[in-house]
Amino acid sequence: MRAAVLTQFGAPLTVREVPDPEAGGGEVVVEVLAASVAPYAAEVFGGKRNYPLVPPVVPGVGGVGRIIHLGPDATRLRVGDLVWCDSTVRSRDDALTPDITLQGWSSRGEGGARLARYLHDGSFAELMRVPTENVFPLPTVAGDDPARWAALTVHAISYGGLLAGGLAAGETLLVSGATGNLGSSAVAVALAMGAGRVVAPGRNQAALDLLADRFGPRLRPVPLTGDEATDRAAMSAAADGPIDMVIDLLPPSAPSSASRAAAMTVREYGRVVLMGGVGMLGGDDLALPYPWIMRNSITVRGQWMYPRTANVGIIRLLASGTLDLAPERVRSFGLEAVNDAIAYAAAHGGPFDRTSLTPWAG
């Protein structure tokens, strides 16, 4: 098969022939129809984000595919099924605190690194080997435009964060980082889940206007000034009532003061979910006041990726049309143009901009 290979950090990916993957027990092999290319992929492959990938490696985070081989323990899946392949692989020998790797992308700790050595390669290839429990059937309509459905990579993450915070219908949510690629997904998913209103702070006025045009009065845009006290007051005022939950999805380049300003708008007994990258590249850590957390009974939770059940939930939202993929701007690239896709994604990382790699195209 052909695959795009990261041979070393800082070098362009190389498309070449590699051996076909073979499935063992508890695994499937899929033809990869489409894989999402993250806006920050160039930072990962260039080494800036210091991800624990070990070259040579086929990168890529999940994808839409069609099953071509099943292990003997699969009872519901069939060869030919259209499926979503979740990249979040968990070890099977510890139900309480499983080790995690993001297949073809990242890992956590030594246990995660061991998983990554076994499930080394991701979705930037014609074929991919995936654990059986990481494969989820898709509706037939997804086969008409798999490149668009590859946005599941993004939407599953934001959905997992909203589940972690227990977002309920009718509640007011503040999305810190709302004008970004992942943050805008959280806005759309939250409204699809029934949020009463979503406060969307950001510095990019064009992106704020786009969100307001798409979602109407349930979306409350807030232009940020960079002054923590001023911005906190503006976000609170925009909510027109208590803010039940804050989800932070700011990138590593954002200052911790922006995360803190957003978090501290939440009401008494409110919830704060941290899913962004603040502090990952250095800079000040997030410093939330102990008395404020304690006296207001605030719940602060970190969430990396999402539980397996989130895949089923986000697919249902998409299949029902409650979460609409139609307005998203999708640009597809064949495997030979993988480096063009990476460059395009870096330049088009705004709200609802999606870049997909389609290995079997062309």
Concise overview:
By secondary structure, this protein is an alpha/beta fold. Helix content is 28%, strand content 26%. It contains 11 helices and 18 strands.
Number of strands: 18
Alpha-carbon distance between the two ends: 14 Å
Helix content: 25-40%
CATH superfamily of the largest domain: Medium-chain alcohol dehydrogenases, catalytic domain
List SSEs in N-to-C order: EEEHEEEEEHEEHHEHEHEHEHEHEHEHE
Estimate the global geometry from the Cα principal axes.
globular
Poorly predicted runs are none
Q: Approximately how much beta-strand content do the residues carry?
A: 25-35%
Mean pLDDT, to the nearest integer, reads 96
CATH class of the largest domain: Alpha Beta
SSE blueprint and pairings:
Layout: E1 2-5, E2 14-17, E3 27-36, H1 41-45, E4 63-70, E5 82-85, E6 88-90, E7 100-102, E8 106-107, H2 109-118, E9 127-131, E10 135-137, H3 146-149, H4 152-164, E11 172-176, H5 181-192, E12 197-202, H6 205-215, E13 219-223, H7 228-239, E14 243-248, H8 256-263, E15 266-274, H9 290-295, E16 299-302, H10 309-320, E17 329-334, H11 338-347, E18 353-358
Parallel strand pairs: 11-12, 11-14, 12-13, 14-15, 15-16, 17-18
Antiparallel strand pairs: 1-2, 3-4, 3-9, 3-18, 4-5, 5-10, 6-7, 7-8
Helix pairs in contact: 4-5, 4-10, 7-8
Give your account of this protein's structure:
This protein has helices at 41-45, 109-118, 146-149, 152-164, 181-192, 205-215, 228-239, 256-263, 290-295, 309-320, 338-347; strands at residues 2-5, 14-17, 27-36, 63-70, 82-85, 88-90, 100-102, 106-107, 127-131, 135-137, 172-176, 197-202, 219-223, 243-248, 266-274, 299-302, 329-334, 353-358. Strands 3, 4, 5, 9, 10, 17 and 18 form a seven-stranded mixed β-sheet that branches. A six-stranded parallel β-sheet has the order 13-12-11-14-15-16, with helices on both faces. Strands 6-7-8 form a three-stranded antiparallel β-sheet. It starts with a strand and ends with a strand. The model has no long low-confidence stretch (mean pLDDT 96). The protein is α/β, with parallel strands linked by helices and 362 residues long. Strand 14, helix 8 (256-263) and strand 15 (266-274) form a beta-alpha-beta unit. It contains eleven helices and 18 strands. It folds into two domains: 2-151 and 325-358, Medium-chain alcohol dehydrogenases, catalytic domain (Quinone Oxidoreductase, Chain A, domain 1, Alpha-Beta Complex), CATH 3.90.180.10; 156-302, 3-Layer(aba) Sandwich (Rossmann fold), CATH 3.40.50.720.
